[in-house]
């Protein structure tokens, strides 16, 4: 079977929720699963301008309890349940400057978006998955869960590490009931959010964008592949794990970082 034929049929009839799916890696994931025949709903704080995306986008701030509750209601109303959940939404707006630059509000915001949003959505949608006896959940974490940076992403890294722990524990509970849970941990992905983070590093160090990029690359310890990941490369890994081709993979973490993490 060719790659194109797989993409056209592997998710036919599958009901999918992708959080944060209107830009960056999330948008690439939505496009890849849609190419495989999936019916998709996604979330965003602000509706995109494109009409096609607006039709399948739920406007909601999933860093809040009410936002998650709204998404759960919309998914159940439109689909009656869900077969695949991709927890992609995440990020941080904490300024560079180390531990003392991270305020109480920063910590709470990063925990809400990068950890608690996934927990709350799982809690709202898992009853239906348990009832149907099948499903896939993929948590998009980060290599910073194991390789934290102190300057600008301290709270983000801590939240992703907690998400890793939660995801592994969840997989042990859900697998006997037909639901697979896995993690995808990207390194540096070339997205607009990454560019904004580089800009903040550059401003804090009084340099330009290229200087900020070099600082970030140095903080990561370099990337042996010599470049960031493309959103489409992350999406292809997610598609594999969400498909029946990965039917025996559960409770696992898949790192896609070009070799950034040098430990075994």
Question: Can you put this structure into words, describing what you see?
Answer:
There is one protein chain. The protein has 264 residues and is α/β, with parallel strands linked by helices. It is built from nine helices and seven strands; from the N terminus they run αβαβαβαβαβαβαααβ. The protein has a seven-stranded parallel sheet, sandwiched between helices. Helix 2 (24-35) packs across helix 9 and helix 7 (192-204) packs across helix 8 (209-220). The longest helix is centred in the middle third of the chain and has 29 residues, at 104-132. The model has no long low-confidence stretch (mean pLDDT 91).
Quick summary of this structure?
The protein is α/β, with parallel strands linked by helices and 264 residues long. Helices cover 48% and strands 13% of the residues.
As residue ranges, the low-confidence spans are none
Order of helices and strands: HEHEHEHEHEHEHHHE
SS strand fraction = 5-15%
Rg from alpha-carbon coordinates: 18 Å
Shape: globular
What is the CATH level 1 assignment? Alpha Beta
Name the CATH superfamily classification. NAD(P)-binding Rossmann-like Domain
| Main structural class | alpha/beta
In total, the number of domains comes to 1
- Fill in the CATH topology: Rossmann fold
Count of DSSP H/I helices:
9
**What's the helical proportion of residues?**
40-55%
Care to count the β-strands? 7
Distance between the termini: 34 Å
Sheet with most strands: 7 strands, parallel
CATH architecture title: 3-Layer(aba) Sandwich
Mean pLDDT: 91
Widest sheet: strand ordering: 3-2-1-4-5-6-7
């Amino acid at each position: 079977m060719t790659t194109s034929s797989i993409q056209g049929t592997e998710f036919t009839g599958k009901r999918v929720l992708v959080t944060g799916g209107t830009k960056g890696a999330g948008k690439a994931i939505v496009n890849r699963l849609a190419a495989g025949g999936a019916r998709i709903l996604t979330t965003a704080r602000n509706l995109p301008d494109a009409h096609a995306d607006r039709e399948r986008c739920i406007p909601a701030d999933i860093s809040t309890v009410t936002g998650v509750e709204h998404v759960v209601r919309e998914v159940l109303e439109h689909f009656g349940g869900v077969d695949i959940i991709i927890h992609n939404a995440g990020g941080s707006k904490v300024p560079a400057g180390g531990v003392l630059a991270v305020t109480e509000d920063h910590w709470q915001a990063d925990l809400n978006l990068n950890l608690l949003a996934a927990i709350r959505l799982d809690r709202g949608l898992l009853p239906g998955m348990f009832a149907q006896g099948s499903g896939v959940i993929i948590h998009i974490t980060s290599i910073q869960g194991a390789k934290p940076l102190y300057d600008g992403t301290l709270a983000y890294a801590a939240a992703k590490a907690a998400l890793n722990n939660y995801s592994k524990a969840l997989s042990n509970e859900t697998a006997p009931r037909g639901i697979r849970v896995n993690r995808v941990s990207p390194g540096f992905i070339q997205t607009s959010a990454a560019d904004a983070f580089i800009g903040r590093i550059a401003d804090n160090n009084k340099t330009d964008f290229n200087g900020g990029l070099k600082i970030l690359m140095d903080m990561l310890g370099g990337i042996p592949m010599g470049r960031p990941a493309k959103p489409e490369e992350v999406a292809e890994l997610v598609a594999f794990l969400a498909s029946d081709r990965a039917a025996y993979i559960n409770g696992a973490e898949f790192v896609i970082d070009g070799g950034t993490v040098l430990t075994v």
